[in-house]
Specification:
alpha+beta, 19% strand, 26% helix, D-Maltodextrin-Binding Protein, domain 2, single chain, ten-stranded mixed sheet
Length: 408
């Protein structure tokens, strides 16, 4: 039997649980005992979705970057209360180990469960969670591993999402816990011509039919991340450009569809441009900070070494303060209603609201006293570049609130 592993979370060898014959049945039966010797992941809550928050949830599961890695940092795993049996989480990345969101492959999330398509994004993660909640089949819209819908009922407990509701409904509840902001990576051959940009300049650039704009005497190319990725959609919203218009610009520039939050992939294009020709691309500011701080999988080291950085936008300044490996979110930038956005844990509404539901999930994510909203967990959240709802951000959301609902 082919085996599929979570790429970074508690990173227990989940696939070893997919054993053949009666041995697998025996393991499942053993779960009925209140005291059992199986590893914690067997009873953990399983999450899928956004690549923007996957490294953070790896840390909340116990380790990031996931072993085997010479740079792994170990964290105290997030867990529910003792009254709810101290249940932990397991988080499956948007891409397989060493792979890409364009070829996500398949995963097996529960002991004895089916193999199904790995959700490679926020949107896919929400669709898969909705399928689990409603009993319908789940299949990726592109690059399907299973080539057919698979029932995921009981296989997914929550989704990581880097945006709010786009599909109306009430089946899912979006629970905020922190804030991110879309940043703009620039590479300008170390001239400093692009270190400060304006929304008006970005609007003109991504509205250009040639995909270029002259800034500071340089020709600047408009690059975009993968279609449907959070950095792409959030930048387009921030600067007031439709995706179809921005795609025309990026196609003309020759750099459309670069993997999100991977500055090295962007740098491979930008650094090949001649002097006087520069490029920009959107990124999750939190992802940039987490990579700089050495706690996330570093996909930007080559770009940083080559001079790529995040631009200051308008009067907001840079998205981060400090220097690596001790960078922090810039509250002024993150508070922007144009560039800042909340990040959420999403769970089935019937599991996290009302008098009934799942007490463990509630203990983990619901309310200001939940595990994820606790001071120790929020310190980890900040280390990965996400800002807590304090200070100038305090009015933007309440950690653990269950007032926002939707179907995707």
């Amino acid at each position: 039997m082919r085996r599929f592993l979570p790429s970074r979370s508690s990173r227990v060898l989940a696939s070893l649980a997919v054993v053949c014959g009666t041995a697998g049945v025996a393991s499942v039966v053993g779960l009925s005992s209140s005291a059992q010797a199986d590893p914690a992941w067997v009873s953990s809550y399983t999450g899928v979705g956004a690549d923007v928050t996957q490294d953070l949830f790896a840390a909340l599961s116990g380790a990031s970057p996931a072993p085997p890695s010479a740079s792994t940092t170990f964290f105290t795993p997030l867990h529910s209360s003792s009254a709810t049996n101290n249940k932990t989480i397991s988080s499956f990345d948007a891409s397989p180990p060493g792979g890409s969101t364009t070829a996500p492959g398949g995963i097996t999330t529960k002991l004895g469960g089916p193999t199904f398509d790995r959700p490679p994004s926020t949107t896919a993660g929400l669709a898969a969670l909705l399928a689990a909640a409603t009993g319908s089949g789940w299949q990726n819209s592109t690059a399907s591993f299973t080539n057919a819908p698979v029932s995921v009922t009981g296989q997914i407990d929550f989704a990581r999402t880097a945006r709010g509701v786009k599909i109306a409904g009430s089946t899912l509840t979006f629970i905020p816990y922190a804030r991110d902001a879309v940043g703009v990576i620039y590479y300008d051959h170390s001239t400093g011509h692009l270190s400060s940009l304006t929304t008006a300049q970005l609007n003109a650039l991504y509205s250009s039919s040639t995909g270029t704009l002259t800034i500071g005497g340089d020709t600047v190319y408009a690059c975009l991340t993968l279609l449907g990725s959070t950095p792409r959609s959030n930048l387009e919203t921030a600067i007031g450009v439709t995706d179809s218009t921005a795609a025309i610009a990026a196609n003309a520039a020759g750099c459309n569809g670069i993997e999100q939050n991977n500055a090295n992939a962007f740098y491979a294009f930008a650094s090949a441009l001649p002097a006087g020709s520069d490029a920009v691309i959107p990124i999750s500011s939190a992802s940039w900070i987490g990579q700089d701080n050495g706690v996330g999988v570093d996909r930007s080291s080559t770009a940083r070494a080559g001079g790529a950085d995040l631009a200051s936008i308008d009067s907001l300044g840079k998205p981060y303060t400090g220097t690596l490996p001790n960078e922090s979110p810039n509250p002024t930038y993150y508070a922007s209603t144009s560039y800042g956005y909340n990040v959420f844990t999403v769970a089935p509404t019937n599991k996290v609201t009302g008098a009934f539901g799942d007490a463990g999930l509630k203990s983990l994510f619901v309310g200001s006293s939940s595990a994820l909203c606790s001071a120790p967990a929020q310190a980890t959240v900040n280390q990965f570049g996400f800002a807590s709802f304090t200070g100038v951000l305090s009015g933007l959301a309440t950690c653990g609130s269950t007032t926002t609902q939707g179907n995707g």
